[in-house]
Request: fold
Amino acid sequence: MADRLRAMFCDHLSLMRGKYLPASKMKSDATRMARPTFSVHWDKDLILDAPHTKCREGIPDMELRWDGAEIRDGWEPETKVVTGDLYDSDGARLPLCPRGALKRAVADWGQHGLAPKVGLELEAFAFAIQPDGSLAPLHAPGGIVYGTGPFADPVGFTDAIWRQAEASGFRLELITAEYDTPQYEFTLAYDGVVKAVDEMVLFRQMAREVALKHGILLTFLPKPVLEKGGSGLHVNLSFADAAGNNALMTGPKGGPDHLNALGRGCVAGWMQHHKGLAGLLAPTVGSYLRLQPASMSGYWCNWGGDHRGVTVRVSEEGGPKTRLEHRMADASCNPYTAVAAILQAARLGYEGGYALPAPEAGDCFDRTDAGQGVAISLSGAMDDLAADTALGNAVGRELVDHHIFMKRIEVDKTAGLEGAALRDYYIWYV
Ligand code: GLU
Ligand code: MG
Reply:
């Protein structure tokens, strides 16, 4: 019998904040925290003028409310975990709540009789924490792409994550070593979007905490090692129709030649809002070290079939597995906001009947048909996001305005930081 509840939410920086609460809270309930938690920056600086945080209005409360049915097994002894939605002190939904933005996106698609579902792929690097507290990439000289076993993970921290995931009821699809060493991939099972993102933020937290017990700092930073590849958060999307069938499915085959109007509309929306999306999907300074041409990471405004050089990959798997993969995000994003943005850009494309450009025909190393990429910096991405008012309004004006304001400050705070100094600005949190 668990004797405490760890209630958390995922904030604007994608940090899990919360409290331990007594067993009496193990039902639908709430707890209060200061609303200007949304004014706090990475360096703990309180940004008094952060919009919609009411920092200058007495640092009032907000309320985290959860559904008792969503309380689940945690990964610490005698401790259950839950996440929930944020409300302001008047009982209205807090406009800055990322989970609220995702629920709005789900409701908007609900108007079409469709329920979005996602499967999320997470990539991460492992650093060994040295006795003096400094970090060194985990020594795994035998690591290879798709490596398994002790050559890939000599300390067994991924085995411990697997075991804990099983014990805690996370639905892992796979763990493997990624292209670079020491880099790993964790893929979570498909589910309705809110449930899948809840699972992702809790899994990410659990994985980092289990790794820490093995002396490993597992980081989801997009580019923690400059000379190696980046880490992404790939979002695989499909929709269930009213009968529960995959609404993207046209037959036994997938791929660009078998897209229906729904699939074409989603891809067209992502192409049109490509630059604006980056500010929400790739929201840290290092995101733009990852998002580069020829990096398999969602830089180019392009789409295609089974092609890792494009941002939107239309899986060749068809039937019930028909899906679209959006490859731009990295896991330094708030995944509620990022998936909300992906859903809203897709909806704008579908409802607006946007024209779909031709699929990529180049190899994306020496040649591409993509006319444009994302911005080359976080600063440029904020300009692009500010300019994309349709996307910002759809995701939530207040949330996006707050995001742009805070991220512009992040650009100033990190000016001049490079390499390990930039990495260390974020790495203990991401
Ligand atoms: N690591 C790549 C990224 O930054 C993706 C590699 C892959 O296709 O899994 O998104
Ligand atoms: Mg991968």
In short: The chain has two domains: 4-94, 106-426.
